[in-house]
Specification:
This protein is α/β, with parallel strands linked by helices. The protein is built from nine helices and eight strands. It is globular and about 45 Å long. The protein binds pyridoxal-5'-phosphate.
Amino acid sequence: MAYWNVQLAATLAERLAAVRARIQAAAERARRDPAGITLLAVTKVFPAAAIGEAYALGLREFGENYVQEFAVKAPQVRDLAGARYHLIGHLQSNKSGLAAELFDAIQTVDSPKLAHRLESAGRKLEVMLEVKLSGETAKSGADPAALPELIAAVRECSHLTLAGLMTMPPWSDDPEAARPHFRRLRELAERHGLSGLSMGMSHDLETAIEEGATCVRVGTALFGARRRE
Ligand SMILES: *Cc1c(COP(=O)(O)O)cnc(C)c1O
């Protein structure tokens, strides 16, 4: 094992314990069962070995942002039984076939066209709808007003299981800044009868859990700073 890996293994265990403790504490404050909150380990930019180390520590749900990048790592993590991979980055329709082959869940469906493309790949997929809550600052995601049409489109797709909504608020180092966005996402999910809420990252997972997150997407707090994006 390379020196780099030994170091990662040592610190990853500690960081994972710290993240789990944060989730636990936030869930207790919100009077929620922590078992209802999935920790999605975001491994973008990190090598496949990072997925292996996290798997060895008990993590099973992994998030990746780029189809191309995961296409390179996927053959190296094929042996990890029970591991599930979620696409959490924007998906262009021309990569939907490859994405459907590589991932178990696509959290960033934001148009009926993309839903139909994924459906035509013919593989069972869990999907979440990415919602744009911050107007012009968000690059991707569906407008809340477009949700009824999008939900109907996904429900017509026999290979797709609709798990809920996902959002990525504008970046702020103040976790409170994200709270209104998280609350809005929960209200939208309730209105449309959806139970899954993917929201909250390393710096604001407590706020997200207080507002009802069922999946927190954590990269930096587990794996350290990324060298690029
Ligand atoms: C990178 C990323 C994350 C993880 O962010 P951290 O701040 O490193 O925890 C979560 N969600 C999405 C959509 C991301 O792109």
